[in-house]
Please model this.
Amino acid sequence: MARRSGGAATQDAPSAFVIGAGRVGTGLAKALPGAGVTVLGTWSRTPGHAARARRLTGAPASSGRFPDRISDADLVFLAVPDDAVEAVCRTLVDEGLVGRGQGVIHLSGCLDLHVLDAAGATGAMTGSLHPLQAFADAATAHARFAGALAVVDGPPSLSRRLSALARALSMRPVTLKPVPDGRVLYHAAAVVAAGGLVALMDLALSIAAAAGLSRKDALAGLLTLARGTLDNLERLGRTDAALTGPIVRGDAAVVRRHLQALGRLPGDPRALYRALARRALALAQARPGGIAAGGDRLRRLLGSR
Ligand SMILES: NC(=O)c1ccc[n+]([C@@H]2O[C@H](COP(=O)([O-])OP(=O)(O)OC[C@H]3O[C@@H](n4cnc5c(N)ncnc54)[C@H](OP(=O)(O)O)[C@@H]3O)[C@@H](O)[C@H]2O)c1
Model:
């Protein structure tokens, strides 16, 4: 990619600047050198997070005014909250820090490329690279790119470049088909599988606590159970085949007792239990042979909404 200052294609290692040194930004800045990209620096809104990024990545890090060296970067990654991407992009443009020869890339799963239009109007190429992974903290994020899907978007030359970068990070690059609401639905799926899973585990842990299990035993035991279930799903490749428990067995009496006991808990978690069980029942009934018996009783117990 040509640099703005020289205007000619460079043979040097590509360079990047990462704006937003939170979880993903810090992880990316730490991982990029391993993929052959020189990190010119990171920026974070608060000085403490910039200092953390400097310590974790070894690259220059700052807060306050955006540094001039952003304009030297081939790739400028915007690793800020989705709601801030458009405004940060506009500030970069207003300050003359991005332009022709650079790629400006956001990391959001939900946003399309229009949020980067201000950069596009300067002649910069705009794109996105969404790592389908959960990054819970800045210190370990660099190790979580490998193996993840990377959803890449942008004009062909930038998409090729981002796909090559994703492969260099041991990710699997894909592009989304242009279906209505495709990007938003893709992100909704990600949120169900990540935050939704944590919310489910939180529910399971609270029920286990009410059952008198210690937090330590409940966490270890339920994590083993959940990992075993995910292993089954990975091995079998089908959700209906991986389904276990009273719904598959048609054990309506067990489900009735669950609902009675859950109804006595503070916060009454029966609505979520029922919603999940209805989904499991539909899955079980769609299996070859359906469920042995108890389907009608289960349907009555679980209701329609
Ligand atoms: N976390 C994930 O699992 C994950 C996965 C895939 C993609 N993503 C995407 O990655 C991007 C970054 O997410 P993240 O989880 O890394 O966020 P994060 O940990 O909250 O970090 C956000 C960064 O942006 C800065 N920032 C916050 N508000 C800002 C504002 N209004 N203007 C300028 N900078 C601001 C923060 O600065 P200070 O902290 O210094 O205030 C911090 O450096 C998002 O687009 C997100 O959708 C996240």
